């Protein structure tokens, strides 16, 4: 095997056939002939080592990260960890190294940020490599975090915000409150997906289609908004929603709760208190994980109280009147 350098519009590319017989077409990312030859030789040597010893003995974290991204993996935060773990062989990386890399990359970050921006992307890359047969799978202990206490609200919270919100944003907040959908679902919702009180989502965060239903009042409010560029709500990104909402909360004198707590969280809390099963709540709100809903919204004491009421009502019908006292 010998790779050749080909020049395309002034850029060097390595062309040839690898030890496994596969065609190689690789950008060398240089316009300099000397550096192109160095890169060609290094690539050729690496391909030989992969052919002789296997990819697990050669591939580095950043090379696996590149393959992960090309395969459709989430790019956010991967590049930072790829820089931090650059040069390290994929098979040699330990959980402790990943935790340390996260600390070094984000020295002033909270534990939640270290988990989200450090451990999660690094773990995803390595486990992608495992799926390709390049390295063992890895488990990394997350940094301890304390989950923030979420607050459920009713429509009175939104009523206080109404005078301080643009009308389309108030309607969108009501939409989230009665359907339990994510703000991203609302932002991308197009007018052709709304049929009366029925809303069809082609794709959601979990990658699956979904159907939601509005109350008649909210359906009428949604119908009264003139679509812009085919979209029901005139917002391109959630950041503009949050900024406007935060200002309105300050003017209304109510706590800023974002969109999740007045919407999705309040929706599930209301259904849980009304006696809906965990599975029913998950189906109604589009949660893929029933376990997640159970962990967040099902409290043993409340479930026990509801169970006692149901059983008590059934027993009361069977006990003779003269024995009731």
Strand content: 5-15%
CATH third-tier fold name of the largest domain: hpI Integrase, Chain A
Strand order of the largest sheet: 1-2-3
Number of domains: 3
Major β-sheet, in short? 3 strands, antiparallel
Name of the CATH superfamily of the largest domain: Intergrase catalytic core
Tally the beta strands.
6
Structural class: mainly alpha
- Could you tell me how far the N terminus lies from the C terminus, measured between alpha carbons in angstroms? 95 Å
Q: At the first level of CATH, what is the class of the largest domain?
A: Mainly Alpha
Shape: elongated
Under the CATH scheme, which architecture of the largest domain would be assigned?
Orthogonal Bundle
Overall mean pLDDT stands at 86
Strand/helix succession: EEEHHHHHHHHEEEHHHHHH
The oligomerization state is single chain
Describe this structure in words.
The chain has 3 domains: 4-48, no CATH class; 61-131; 155-300, Orthogonal Bundle (hpI Integrase, Chain A). Helices cover 51% and strands 8% of the residues. The chain is built from 14 helices and 6 strands. The strands form 2 sheets. A 3-stranded antiparallel β-sheet has the order 1-2-3, covered by helices on one side. Helix 2 packs antiparallel against helix 3. It starts with a strand and ends in a 7-residue tail after the last helix. The model has no long low-confidence stretch (mean pLDDT 86).
């Amino acid at each position: 095997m010998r790779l050749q350098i080909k020049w395309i519009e002034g850029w060097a590319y390595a062309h040839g056939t690898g030890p496994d017989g596969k065609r190689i077409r690789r950008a060398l990312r240089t316009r300099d002939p000397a550096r192109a030859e160095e890169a060609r030789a290094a690539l050729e040597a690496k391909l030989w080592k992969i052919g002789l010893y296997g990819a697990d003995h050669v591939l580095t974290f950043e090379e696996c990260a590149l393959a992960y991204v090309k395969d459709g993996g989430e790019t956010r935060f991967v590049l930072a960890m790829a820089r931090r773990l650059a040069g390290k062989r994929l098979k040699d990386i330990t959980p402790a190294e990943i935790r340390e890399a996260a600390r070094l990359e984000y020295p002033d970050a909270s534990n939640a940020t270290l988990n989200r921006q450090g451990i999660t992307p690094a773990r995803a890359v390595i486990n992608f490599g495992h799926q390709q047969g390049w390295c063992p799978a890895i488990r990394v202990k997350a940094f301890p975090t304390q989950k923030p206490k979420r607050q459920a609200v009713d429509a009175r919270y939104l009523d206080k915000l109404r005078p301080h919100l643009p009308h389309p944003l108030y309607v969108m907040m009501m939409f989230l409150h009665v359907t339990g959908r994510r703000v991203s679902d609302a932002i991308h919702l197009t007018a052709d997906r709304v049929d009366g009180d029925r809303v069809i989502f082609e794709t959601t965060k979990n990658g699956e289609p979904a159907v939601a239903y509005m109350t008649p009042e909210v359906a009428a409010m949604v119908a009264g908004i003139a679509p812009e560029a085919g979209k029901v709500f005139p917002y391109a990104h959630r950041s503009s929603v949050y900024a406007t909402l935060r200002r309105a909360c300050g003017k209304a004198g109510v706590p800023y709760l974002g969109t999740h707590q007045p919407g999705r969280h309040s929706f599930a809390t209301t259904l849980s208190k009304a006696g809906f099963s965990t599975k029913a709540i998950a189906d109604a709100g589009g949660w893929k994980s029933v376990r997640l809903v159970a962990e967040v919204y099902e409290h043993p004491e409340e479930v026990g109280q509801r169970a006692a009421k149901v059983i008590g009502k059934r027993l009361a019908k069977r006990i003779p009147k003269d024995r009731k006292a």
